[in-house]
Amino acid sequence: VRRSGQSGTILFYSEASDPSWPTELQKAFPTFAVRTRPEDTDPTDVVAAIVWKYPAGMLQQFANLRLIQVLGAGVDHLWSDPCLPKHVPIARLVDPGLTARMTEYVLLHSLALHRRLPELRSAQCKNTWRYLHPRPPADTCVGIMGLGVLGRSCAAALAGIGFNAIGWSRSRKSNMAVQTYIGAADLDEFKRRADIIVLLLPLTSATENLIDSHFLAGVRDGAALINVGRGALIVENALIAALDAGRLRHAVLDVFRTEPLPAEHAFWSHPKITITPHNSSATNPATALGQIVENIRRATAGEKLLHPVDPLIGY
Ligand code: GLV
To answer: Residue 48: its pLDDT value, please?
Structure first.
């Protein structure tokens, strides 16, 4: 049966998210059945799948699927599914709550790096009084790579508290509040300026391994790195080599090639690495549910989605 209108099954499948999602979705969609396990559905009844890191192949059994709604900003995990249904429209979320939490995280760690908290912490571990003179934020240039919704919000907030903020993106953006560098041609100049580099790029074939030994050889001496994009943007050995050589002074990492980061991974005990468990930000029912409701309405009516994803460019 091809369902239309206001009934059918909504599959919510997520490996890490706010636990209240299924209940909130069921409240928002009283005439639909909300399920969290594919085995609890009649596959032909599933009209919408709301997913975050699902097992490859899961979606192909849903013959009447009208919408793949990714429960987050980054959609790269979809491309590792060789059986991703090609005809079903995909949307990602632009959640003001996620943007706000991400902006806080980038401010928090930019300030910590600017005020040299890692160096103060290691001095404390040696019972050493190491006076580091506090400097104004204008002396620190924070360069954001990736000027989507998240990157723009972070750039504006950093500039708002007095940092010298700049940005880099693949293509030209309009109405940028900070100085912007574009494409491969501007990358060297961007790297020469940034004291702190913040990675907020989507993971695509063009950005995977972008932060390699060649990239790191061109950064300012003693620059710091914050990765809140995706782990695979960085070549791990190149990062460790740059930290050990003192080329980079510190790295704050929230995302990793393998998550959870394996207990034996060299990053855990590296004195110049700060690790957080991919919790810089997350999608919230309170601020994102409305967008999902609207996209399910649009998908069942055959209308264009909010924040559609273009599989050809990968985000
Ligand atoms: C989290 O990593 C997201 O892409 O929303």
So the answer is: 97
Round to whole Å and give the CA distance between 52 and 80. Answer: 13
Q: Residue 3: which residues within 8 A CB-CB, separation 6 or more?
A: 45, 47, 64, 300
The string of DSSP letters for 146-157 reads --SHHHHHHHHH
The residue ranges of DSSP E strands in 170-305, in sequence order, are 179-182, 196-199, 223-227, 248-253, 273-275
Tell which atom from ligand 1 comes closest to the C-alpha of 278. Answer: 2
H or E stretch covering 189: helix 183-193
Residue with the larger pLDDT of the pair 2 and 106 = 106
Q: How many CB atoms lie within 10 A of CB 64?
A: 16
One of 109, 220, 278, 298 is an active-site residue; which one? 278
Amino acid at 34: V
Task: Please work out whether the CB of residue 229 comes within 6 Å of at least one atom of ligand 1.
Answer: no
Q: Is the model's pTM score more than 0.85?
A: yes
Q: Is the CB of 74 under 6 A from ligand 1?
A: yes
CA–CA gap between residue 128 and residue 91 (Å, rounded): 52
